[in-house]
Structures are given as C-alpha cells and as structure tokens.
Design goal:
Elements (H helix, E strand, L loop, with lengths): L1 H17 L1 H16 L4 H9 L11 E9 L10 E10 L5 E5 L5 E2 L4 E2 L3 H8 L3 H14 L5 E6 H10 L3 E5 L3 E7 L13 E6 L2 E5 L1 H9 L10 H19 L2 H4 L2 H14 E3 L3 H13 L6 E4 L13 E2 L12 E2 L5 H12 L3
Parallel strand pairs: 1-6, 3-12
Antiparallel strand pairs: 1-2, 2-3, 4-5, 6-11, 7-10, 8-9, 13-14
InterPro entries: LytR/CpsA/Psr_CW_biosynth, LytR_CpsA_psr
Family: Belongs to the LytR/CpsA/Psr (LCP) family.
Protein name: Cell envelope-related transcriptional attenuator domain-containing protein
C-alpha cells in the first residue's frame, strides 16, 4: 500500500510540530468547562456519565480551532492559526489537522484566513459560521463546532504566570514588526518597530513572547513559516510547563485571574451541554496515540506527494495555495484516510 506509506511519512514528518498543540487544545477544553458555570457536583456526575451528546458524522465530532491576533493587532480578526480537531465519540481516537491560512476558498474567492473576518463583518457570530463552512468545503467533512482563541488573551495569561522561560537557539532581527494601532501612520516607517532576539535561555513577558512567535519579516532561516512554527512550539511548551507547575496550581489568585482571561479570550458556538462531553473525551485521549496531519506542498526528498501547490500570482493577484492538480479529491482522499483509518 504505497499511498498509506506516504501518508505515514507525512504524519511522522510533522509530528514534532503538531503534538505541542494538543496541550493548547487541552487548555481550551478546560476554559470551555469553566464557561459552563455548572455546579461542581453536577459537573462531576456528568463526567462520570458515559453518555456523550455531541453532534457527529460517522461517530466523529469535528471541531475547528482558530487563533486570532485580537483587538489592537494588525489583521485583528484574520485567523493566524487554524486546526481541525476530529474526535471519535466511542474511542476518543483523535486527529489534529493543520490548515494553511493561504488556501484559496473558491466559494469565497478569498483566502481561508479571511473567512472569519468576512463572517463577522456580516453579523455577530457569523465568523464561526463562515469559517466552518469554508473548512468543510476544503476537507469535504462536516465541521460541527468552532472555537476562537484571542492571542492577546494568551499574552495576558503569560504575564499572570510571571513570564515564560524559553531557550532561543538562533537570534534574529525583524525590522518591520507592526506596531498595534499604527497601521495607517505616516510616514510608513512609523508603522513598524525593530525587534531583536538574542540566542540563549531567557524569560519572556507576554508582549515579548507574542512578538517572538508572530515575527515574519526577518532574513534567513528564521524568516520562514517553518521557523515560525518552531518558535510557536517553544512558547507553547514553556507556557504549559509554567501553567502546570505547583507554584501556579497552588496559587488560587493566579488561577482566578487565568480563568477570567480565558473566559474573555475564547469564543465558541458550543452549547453549555456539550462542555462536559468534550471533557469526558479529553480525559480518554491518549497523547501517545494522537494522530496529526497537515495540508502542505509535500517533499521530493522524502517522497511525500504534494497535496497543495502555489500557482502563479497572476492567477489570483496574490500568493495562494490550491489542491494538487487543481483537484480537491486529492485532499479529500487524504482527509478520509487519516480520519477513518482506525475506525
């Protein structure tokens, strides 16, 4: 089965990148539970109840996770990070699929990362509706729920924790990091600041951590999306370590502050009744068995066929990604195989 072998090589290639995102997924589930405002006893009984009531297709519930810059940041409601999380309601078999923001959505005549923005512009709450529809069009699977995480809340959470300790392997300078609130400043140079990160272990506050993970305009290896993904991994893991430390978990004041930030920074169309079902599933998830996928342009060196390609910019007037061979069935087959191979 050569095609299955290529899929496995693709999964192993990106496992290092996507596994840390499971920690972030766990944090979001915790926030959703807190949002339910159910009495503790009632929640405990619900968790023990084996019945799970969630929308599903072929026993899988599909949840779209979106990360946005938030108010005060350039492109505040353009989705900077997109993941589809699919969970089997019977076995808790979990798949996380990373979705590039530059995928061209035919029905929108725009990039995927704009769907949430355009939906919110039409009506409040429309962002999740349109983003879920766009992703469903790409993966050919229903998307049942959506969750939006405001990265500015993540920044505040880091400050509540007293910063995070990150080992920076390579230093870099970004001379065009956008200054929030100065998108239209004149001269144009007033819109940007210079940010520099030196190699070595250091403590980041929330603002520095966000600049470290979102920096784009730097020369050399650190200017690639691949390097940016590595930086995100380091900060997420550092955040996880600080959050789960005894010093944090035994500090009721910090936990109360973190809960408040979480409630302000997460939007979802999940009903209150769905939270306990997600928590029950989360308790059953085996991180070692977690499967991950990514829609990408493949690798000739590793004999991984492309799922997407970049057409000439003259075609759409901008840099976008389309399915290999302009045939979405290539992507749909990959999604079908990765989701249902264990069912």
């Amino acid at each position: 089965m050569p095609e299955i072998a290529k899929i496995k090589r693709r999964l192993y290639k990106y496992l290092w990148l996507l596994r840390p995102l499971t920690y972030l997924f766990g944090l979001i589930l915790l926030v959703l539970l807190l949002r339910s405002f159910l009495p503790l006893a009632k929640t405990a009984v619900s968790v023990l109840n084996p019945n799970i009531s969630l929308e599903s297709f072929r026993n899988r519930s599909n949840i779209l996770l979106l990360g946005i810059g938030g108010e005060g940041h350039e492109g505040a409601d353009l989705t900077d990070s997109m993941m589809l999380v699919s969970i089997n309601l019977l076995t808790a078999d979990t798949v996380i699929i990373s979705l590039p923001r530059d995928i061209w959505v035919e029905s929108l005549q725009a990039k995927l990362n704009t769907a949430y923005h355009y939906g919110e512009a039409q009506q409040e709450g429309g962002g999740l509706i349109l983003a879920k529809a766009a992703v469903a069009e790409i993966v050919n699977q229903p998307v049942h729920y959506g969750v939006v995480l405001d990265f500015s809340g993540f920044e505040r959470a880091i400050d509540i924790l007293g910063g995070v300790d990150v080992d920076v392997p390579r230093g870099f300078v970004d001379k065009q990091y956008p200054i929030p609130g100065k998108e239209d400043a004149e001269p144009e140079s007033a819109r940007y600041e210079v940010v520099e990160f030196k190699p070595g272990e250091q403590r980041f506050d929330g603002a520095s951590a966000l600049k470290y993970v979102r920096s784009r305009h730097t020369e050399g290896e650190e200017g690639t999306d691949y390097a940016r993904a590595q930086r995100q991994q380091r900060v997420i893991l550092a955040f996880k370590d600080k959050l789960l430390s005894a010093k944090t978990l035994l500090n009721r004041g910090k936990l109360k502050q973190l809960k408040s930030v979480g409630l302000e920074s997460v939007k979802t169309d999940l009903s209150a009744g769905a939270y306990s079902g997600l928590v029950k599933l989360a308790l059953k998830i085996d991180r070692e068995q977690l499967r991950t996928g990514v829609l990408d342009q493949g690798s000739q060196a590793e004999d991984i066929p492309p799922l997407l390609y970049n057409p000439p910019t003259s075609r759409f007037g901008q840099w976008v990604l389309l399915p290999a061979g302009d045939d979405w069935r290539v992507v749909w087959q990959y999604i079908e195989e990765i989701l249902y191979q264990n069912d």
